[in-house]
């Protein structure tokens, strides 16, 4: 027994050595990864020192800002978004602390904003480059160094979501998730190999055998990486599930082959204990059983995993002791799982609902509004139609090679029954199911693709003679002088041709896509930046300290906002930009909070929120939505509305999708180019169209206060042309401001008398911040009196209120018959809802 252990130990030690050549390739791959990810750097650092972070990263950088101001204390609850409800921080604190701590060290304890932003901007590129290292070792321990080197290079040049989420300024938790989950699987893989080879057992632990040290150390490291992963993203128990599913299969394989399972139980239990302990201080007991915030869910899943390993070990021992048929083992596990789920359903329907809900969230394709969220729609479906375009975008040929490699792995497992191969196969297969449910998991599956494609390429090289070359030159690997001679002696044209063909098949498509995709990066465009900076400087302070840490309200209560606080209504895409750049309180945000609408079917009540506001068919309906958003009946949920041309055109369908009432906003019509789909009357009656297409003309309580510069790359003029042609309109067919800011006001009430039956019109000319002009007017039929509520002040802004730069150029004119009267309205009249008699 001792002799066998020593032989195994030597074998694993040799397998663990890294030659200088492999190390060189890994370093080069990491540098390539870093270079690709910093390519768009010139477009993200603006001359004024502003860094053009993309949307979710802005939120992280705001959390870092608060963290540095209150270090080491950070936010758990944020009242500055999803107004008037606020929101809990639903991702982990680790990434933000890593950035903050780096800034504190490099800034000698007092980093300035510029340094913090530079560190934050480059942080994802560093994490992306570092991911090359665990991928190399995963490939190496799966098969050999060659596999690891190829896998490392492939992940360095991987396109798609792994690339985009680790590119400069994409300072989000996704790349950290990928790094820590890869390290978790790497260390668990090594612990598994070591424990299996050393035949780790309870007796070895009891005797404190040195042979047990190595697998235990790696199991602890796996647990610590699992903890780091959980403290990056609360959804990390997904990988705990992968390990437990693998273990169930491996226990079954070992039991059916009359092998010991003690090694598996020991490293599994140690991993999950080590993974739970660092997370416990972050558990919020009052959060109940939530998978989105650190709660009892994370304790329960860890304990369940520990119990699973213990239970599977006990069942193995009991069946062996009773000399029962091996086939009873998988039957017992399946029966236990079914009975356990039924028991949970009876005892705690809420926990059962969480389990099934989380499974559905991860593995099932989405419908309704959720299907409009780019990252949570299925990778195989677009608009309900099966497609491989997203697969190619994310993985190129690597995806198809990964499927082939899984089959190859399955045959190898059937033959050799290596647990490390089974772990890789189970991991890859579950992530394949995950990308069917949500394409966001593509950045995880990129790791599997790199490893599996590396495995495929290495197998092909072995079959074409490279294995013999490796064996012949093995002793020369650590000699820079001798290796070239050995290679030149053994390498033939056929070997070089194989490498060339593999590069063409495996690497070139990924590299080509990565270079295309890394030319640019996301972030607020210049139009939005102009509008957001204007809002920060020209609207009232909401009375909330953006650097203060606020306590969450008691359960069932709402946050106590000051009377000066107000919301900004816009589509959820722009919520973080409104908060982080304009320093204002968005109603909706990219966490899909504040959207409103429906979730399952059209029969549900249409909840108030951004979707219901912008699709409202009248001003009165839209205002009712704002009033319903705020729990105080005396207040409305938003004071300002921000719209851009994308909301009015391409993104409008997403708004309707969230309400699940999508019919008749667009209709097919015959044109010179054939049948085309164009906006319909229902679209032009929507609040979004009233605001952006028609400039708010005729609205009583909504006035434009600012518009950003316009762009020629806009569909606005086309939408106006359709309105004029189909609905006999007469509006100017031009492209106006890309972003328009409106203010909801009480409006001044203007009353007077006119002969009954007369059509009375009130109008004025509005000049915008772009210098363009449009007519604002309302018309009604007098019944002897008339009354208009108007939103614009003719006398200019006042101190402490909106410093609007869109305003009338003349007094209001009231006209009927041959009568024309002029009326001036002050800003106080507008804000207080005063009545002005004419």
UniProtKB/TrEMBL annotation:
Q: Where in the cell is it found?
A: Cell membrane
Report TM segments.
20-38, 88-109, 115-137, 149-168, 174-192, 235-251, 263-283, 295-315, 327-347, 391-414, 421-437, 443-461, 493-511
Protein's UniProt keywords contain Disulfide bond? no
AglB-like core domain mapped to chain residues: 528-648
Q: Name one GO molecular function term.
A: metal ion binding
What is one cellular component GO term in this UniProt entry?
A: plasma membrane
* Catalytic reaction list: an archaeal dolichyl phosphooligosaccharide + [protein]-L-asparagine = an archaeal dolichyl phosphate + a glycoprotein with the oligosaccharide chain attached by N-beta-D-glycosyl linkage to a protein L-asparagine
Can you give the residue ranges of the Oligosaccharyl transferase STT3 N-terminal domain?
44-460
Q: Tell me, what's a Pfam family for it? A: AglB_L1
Pathway the protein contributes to: Protein modification; protein glycosylation
Q: Name the needed cofactors.
A: Mg(2+); Mn(2+)
Gene3D superfamilies, alphabetized: 2.60.40.3390, 3.40.50.12610
Question: What range(s) does the Archaeal glycosylation protein B peripheral domain occupy?
Answer: 747-836
Coiled-coil-forming residues are none
**Which membrane topology term applies here?**
Multi-pass membrane protein
This entry's Enzyme Commission designation comes to: 2.4.99.21
The UniProt keywords, alphabetically, are: Glycosyltransferase, Magnesium, Manganese, Membrane, Metal-binding, Transferase, Transmembrane, Transmembrane helix
Instruction: Give the highest taxon in the source lineage.
Output: Archaea
Family per record = Belongs to the STT3 family.
Descriptive protein name: dolichyl-phosphooligosaccharide-protein glycotransferase
Could you tell me which species this protein originates from?
A: Methanomethylovorans hollandica (strain DSM 15978 / NBRC 107637 / DMS1)
The beginning of the lineage is: Archaea, Methanobacteriati, Methanobacteriota, Stenosarchaea group, Methanomicrobia
């Amino acid at each position: 027994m001792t002799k066998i252990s020593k032989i195994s130990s030597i074998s694993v030690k040799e397998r663990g050595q890294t030659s200088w050549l492999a190390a060189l390739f890994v370093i080069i791959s990491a540098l390539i990864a870093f270079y690709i990810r910093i390519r768009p750097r010139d477009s993200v650092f603006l001359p004024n020192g502003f860094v053009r972070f993309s949307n979710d990263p802005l939120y992280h950088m705001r959390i870092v800002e608060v963290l540095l101001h209150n270090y080491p204390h950070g936010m758990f609850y944020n009242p500055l978004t999803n107004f008037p409800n606020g929101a809990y921080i639903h991702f982990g604190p680790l990434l933000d602390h890593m950035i903050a701590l780096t800034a504190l060290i490099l800034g000698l304890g007092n980093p300035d904003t510029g340094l913090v932003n530079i560190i934050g901007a480059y942080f994802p590129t560093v994490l992306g480059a570092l991911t090359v290292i665990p991928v190399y070792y995963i490939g190496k321990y799966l098969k050999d160094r060659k596999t690891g080197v190829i896998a490392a290079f492939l992940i360095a040049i991987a396109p798609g979501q792994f690339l985009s989420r680790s590119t400069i300024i994409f300072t989000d938790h996704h790349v950290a998730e990928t790094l820590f989950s890869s390290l978790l699987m790497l260390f668990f893989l090594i612990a598994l190999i070591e424990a299996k080879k050393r035949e780790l057992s309870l007796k070895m632990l009891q005797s404190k055998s040195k042979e047990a040290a190595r697998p235990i150390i790696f199991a602890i490291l796996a647990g610590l990486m699992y903890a780091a992963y959980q403290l990056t993203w609360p959804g990390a128990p997904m990988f705990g599930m992968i390990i437990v599913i693998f273990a169930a299969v491996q226990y079954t394989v070992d039991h059916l082959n009359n092998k010991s399972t003690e090694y598996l139980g020991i490293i599994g239990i140690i991993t999950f204990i080590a993974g739970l302990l660092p997370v416990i201080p972050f558990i919020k007991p009052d959060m109940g059983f939530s998978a989105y915030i650190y709660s009892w869910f994370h304790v329960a899943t860890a304990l369940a995993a520990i119990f699973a390993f213990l239970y599977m070990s006990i069942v193995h021992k009991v069946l062996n002791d009773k000399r029962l048929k091996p086939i009873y083992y998988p039957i017992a596990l399946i029966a236990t799982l079914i009975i356990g789920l039924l028991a949970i359903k009876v005892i705690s329907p809420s926990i059962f609902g969480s389990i099934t809900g989380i499974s559905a969230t991860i593995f099932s394709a989405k419908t309704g509004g959720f299907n409009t969220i780019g990252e949570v729609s299925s990778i195989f479906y677009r608009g309900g139609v099966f497609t491989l375009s997203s697969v190619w975008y994310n993985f190129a040929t690597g995806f198809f090679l990964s499927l082939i490699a899984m089959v190859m792995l399955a045959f190898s497992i059937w033959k050799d029954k290596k647990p490390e191969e089974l772990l890789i196969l189970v991991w890859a297969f579950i992530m394949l199911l995950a990308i069917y449910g949500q394409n966001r998991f593509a950045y995880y599956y990129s790791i599997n693709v790199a490893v599996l494609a590396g495995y495929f390429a290495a197998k092909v090289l072995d079959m074409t003679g490279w294995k013999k070359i490796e064996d012949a030159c093995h002793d020369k690997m650590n000699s820079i002088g001798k290796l070239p001679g050995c290679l030149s002696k053994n390498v033939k044209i056929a070997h070089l041709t194989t490498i060339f063909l593999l590069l063409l098949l495996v690497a070139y498509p990924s590299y080509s896509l990565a270079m295309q995709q890394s030319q640019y990066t996301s972030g607020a465009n210049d139009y939005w930046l102009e509008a957001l900076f204007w809002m920060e400087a020209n609207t009232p302070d909401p009375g909330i300290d953006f650097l203060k840490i606020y306590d969450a309200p008691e359960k069932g209560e709402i946050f106590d906002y000051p009377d000066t606080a107000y919301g900004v209504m816009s589509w959820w895409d722009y919520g973080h930009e409104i908060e982080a750049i304009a320093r204002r309180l968005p109603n909706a945000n990219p966490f899909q909070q504040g959207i409103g609408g429906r979730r399952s079917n059209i029969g549900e009540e249409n909840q108030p929120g951004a979707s219901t506001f912008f699709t409202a068919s009248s001003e009165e309906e839209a205002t009712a939505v704002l009033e319903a958003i705020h729990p105080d009946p005396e207040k409305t949920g938003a004071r300002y509305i921000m719209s851009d041309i994308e909301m009015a055109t391409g993104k409008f369908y997403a708004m309707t999708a969230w309400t699940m009432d999508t019919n008749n906003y667009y209709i097919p019509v015959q044109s010179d180019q054939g049948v085309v789909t164009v906006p319909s009357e229902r679209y032009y009656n929507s609040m979004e169209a009233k605001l952006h297409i028609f400039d708010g003309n005729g609205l009583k309580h909504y006035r434009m206060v600012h518009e950003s510069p316009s762009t020629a790359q806009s569909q606005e003029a086309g939408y106006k042309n359709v309105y004029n042609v189909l609905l006999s309109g007469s509006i100017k067919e031009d492209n106006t401001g890309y972003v328009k800011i409106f203010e909801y006001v009480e409006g001044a009430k203007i009353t007077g008398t006119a002969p009954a039956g007369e059509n009375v019109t009130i109008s004025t000319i509005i000049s915008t911040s772009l210098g363009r002009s449009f007519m604002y007017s309302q018309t009604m039929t007098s019944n002897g009196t008339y009354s208009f509520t108007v939103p614009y002040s003719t006398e200019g802004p006042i101190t402490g209120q909106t410093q609007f730069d869109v305003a009338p150029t003349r007094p209001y004119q009231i006209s009927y018959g041959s009568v024309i009267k002029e009326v001036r309205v002050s800003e106080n009249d507008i804000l207080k809802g005063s009545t002005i008699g004419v």
